[in-house]
Amino acid sequence: MTVEGALLVFVLSLSAIVFAVFAIETRALVKSTYWYVAHSCCLIFIYVTYAIYANNPYLFIWAGLCGVNTWILPFLVGGLRYTAKRIPSDEGATRLPTAIFVVTAVAATVAVRSYSHLTLVPSGSPIDHLDREVSLNLLAGLLLFAYGIIVLLTERHLFKLAVGLLVMTAGAHLTLVQMAPGFFTMVEIEVLTKVMGTVFAMLYAARLLAERFLSADASRLLAEPGETPGGPPSPIGLRRGEGAAS
Amino acid sequence: MITETSLLLPLIPFIPLMAALFVALGETDDAGRQAAFVFGTVPSLVLGGLLLARLVTPHGGQSLILVAWGGFLYADVLSALMVCCTFLVVAGVGVYSFAYIRHDVERGLVTESGSRLYYFLLLVFSAFMTWTVIVSHLFFMFLVIEIATIAVSFLVAAYKTKYALIASFKYNLLVVMAMLFAVMGAVFIFARMTTSDPSLSRIHVLEMGKLATLLPVSLALTIVACFICAFGTKGGMMPFHSWLPDAHSEAPAPISALLSGLVILVGPFGFARTVTLFSPHYTQVVVLAAVFGCASITIGILLAIVQDDLKRLLAYSTISQVGYVFAGIGLGTYLGIYGGLFHAVTHLLAKALLFFCAGAIIYRLGIRRISDLGGLSRKMPLTAACFFVGCLSIGGLPFFAGFPSKYTVVLAFAQARLWWAVAVTAIAGTLTLAGLVWAAHRVFWGEESPRVAALAPAARELPLLMMVPMVSLAAAVVVLGVYPQALYPVLDSGVRSILALVGR
């Protein structure tokens, strides 16, 4: 990887992180979808850059699949935008995930700099001499992964949790590309399946909850006891552990 | 190690998939769906048994590995044992569900299309669960685990109540998050391996043992931490357990049995395929597995005994019991892995039995709060006896299946000189026995509660079809308790196949 290639990837990685932050912090969910699309576009460009500079044509396929994720799946029936229009917005959003992330990012950068050297282009493999030099791009990939974890641990809105999972997935795959750009295997299928399967299943549950209980905020849903009138009869009664006789 | 090709491997998951397609697309009534379910699971169970018999048969002192599709699919004894467990539990759950889900349809809790979806998802789950244990490509294994997770998450949400939907969402979220940690662990291994061999295109599950020896300590421990987090979450080990009580308590009772008996087994299986292979080379891994396992054993049972919800009590007890499995397998010794696998099997039988009994109470009375129950033994004597057998087995009383398996894990701790772990398991074991027997007493032998008295006409034994899996499981628990050697050939070969991967 040349310096200009690494610099391009670094700028794109930072942009991906910033767009991910916007996707999580934006209260209007449709806007949040568009920020997520912008975040994914950065990933596509990163894969293309690596495909060119690392001379690995398989990464073009990966970029193409990421494109499918970005341009088709969020806009399909049952996808992010479809769900965003059908569930209440994230009015109770706090800045907690991003605040924790900023602190984590600063602490991680300081910690890495204290025992190693941050570099744009490592001399060998990115994980060969971590005690001597750490690639900035690898750090960015790990931070994106960390941001996904922070969102999943602190966010309460179901839509944002789905976006957080997508961000965490992006972080895992970005780290993979940074560590082993020559890599080619079936991960791309995993990327696609995760979006198609898990996230769609989660968004389906979020829509059902929002339709029946008028909220997509997990803490609000759990705080209110019992089923909202109009919902189906519960098999276990109105409260946990209490059931109606057959 | 001898390698042979076998066409059974692709055939076993293919049968339930075809049955699932028939259930989804065929214009069938209840009987048609049930017939499709039986034809989708029983032949696979028989084929799984044949696979196991072929692998257990001695091959001149060498372990046999069956492969198919150019090595993409493989089966050693552990995989074959998992395949048999999968179809045994799924068939039992299916048979129990025939009447249970019909009853839910009649009560309006599940729609007719929901019932169709239920059997479809059960069959899809069994197919992908089989893929999980026979696919050799590490990343592909993560992929099929996620697909099986999606199927289970829909089953958890079968009633579509608020808590069921939230539990399903949480289960999906946490398991996929955990699998991302597994992906990260695999990424670290892969990145390291491609440095020395750029032509490497995939990580073969059976090659993990060799790869484990080539890593620097700090990287190896990071990878182990990722795998513990991933498979600990999937297996419901403390502190990654938070999905488990919610999913177990909100799912229909047969699905709780499936979750507790089978779905969590993916955790120990993944553990055996990854973390255990690091244990012989890094002593820190042994201590880490023992600490997490003992924390799960202790905290799980402490949380279980304060529950008033019968299904949540059983769910927390699962967290406790799975600690034995993880700790045993994590030790990486013959005795530890043997005890861990043995306890996985005995817990599968006993916990499925207990959830079937809890389902029997919900089926007849619609109550699952322990303080609302009491004196049921007079109305449901067979269910009471089955529940008691399950409790005694989980509690580790002699002559029940849980005793020899738990005892083997404790012996393995002693052999590894982890005396603190022996003490922890002894105390937790006593608490488990006391807690579960106390719960059984309150539910079945205590004074008849007003709510049970009010529902007296409904309180009677289950239909015969639902009793068959319950009584069969109870019999298996007693037989394995009296004659634990019955499983020795299988478990011994299974342990040897794991140890062969680390060159022992």
Task: Give the biggest sheet of chain B.
Answer: 3 strands, mixed
The tally of helices of chain B reads 21
Shape of chain A: globular
What is the number of strand segments of chain A? 2
Q: Into how many domains do the coordinates of chain B divide? A: 1
Cα distance spanning the termini of chain B: 12 Å
Q: Your description of this structure?
A:
The complex is a heterodimer of chains A (246) and B (504). Chain A has 246 residues and is mainly alpha-helical. Chain A has one domain. Helix content of chain A is 65%, strand content 2%. Chain A contains 9 helices and 2 strands; from the N terminus they run αααααββαααα. In chain A, α3 packs parallel to α8. The radius of gyration of chain A is 20 Å and the shape is globular. The C terminus of chain A is likely disordered. By secondary structure, chain B is mainly alpha-helical. Chain B has one domain. Chain B has a 3-stranded mixed beta sheet with strand order 1-2-3. In chain B, β2 and β3 form a beta hairpin. The longest helix of chain B has 35 residues. Chain B is globular. Classes of the chains: A mainly alpha (246), B mainly alpha (504).
Descriptors:
heterodimer, A: about 250 residues, 9 helices, 2 strands, B: about 500 residues, mainly alpha, three-stranded mixed β-sheet, about 0% strand
Task: Give a concise summary.
The complex is a heterodimer of chains A (246) and B (504). By secondary structure, chain A is mostly helical. Chain A has helices at residues 3-25, 29-53, 58-71, 80-84, 96-115, 136-154, 158-179, 187-213, 218-223, and strands at 117-119, 133-135.
